[in-house]
Model the fold of this input.
Amino acid sequence: MSFFSSMDVSSSGLTAQRLRMDLISQNIANADTTRTEEGTPYRRKTLTFEEKKRSFSDVFNSKMRSIVGNAQDDSNEDSGESIGAGVKVGKIVEDQSPFKKVYDPGNPEADSDGYVSMPNVDIVQEMVNMISASRTYEANVTSMNTSKSMAMKALEIGRG
Done:
């Protein structure tokens, strides 16, 4: 795994967590939206993460370098093709849990029994998710800064 690969992995984590934070913000902003364009209350959105695999050309080039390198120096290092390339967003899905029913007979959105269907957004859960996304983002920033620091130390060794 090269220096830039570690930066790519960290940056993919930053991008994924930023998108997660955007969805959480959207959910919180629509926590009281009783009517969308579809005519239903807002449905909470979530996302799934997947491992980002290395492309075929990356693995092929790595193997070719390994073969050429082995022919020159007879070393048999692992070329790292089992190492992933970070994280990606798999898909964004709407939470299909039932809407909350709130008794509010004066509301124009109320049904014949006086109940209003409210979005299935739980503010407490969204805040917990926001803290988790923020901490994960910070961890990726720390990882990126550590990689940068290691590269700077390697350059200092070369200077000395």
Q: What stands out?
A: Residues 123-159 form the longest helix (37 residues).
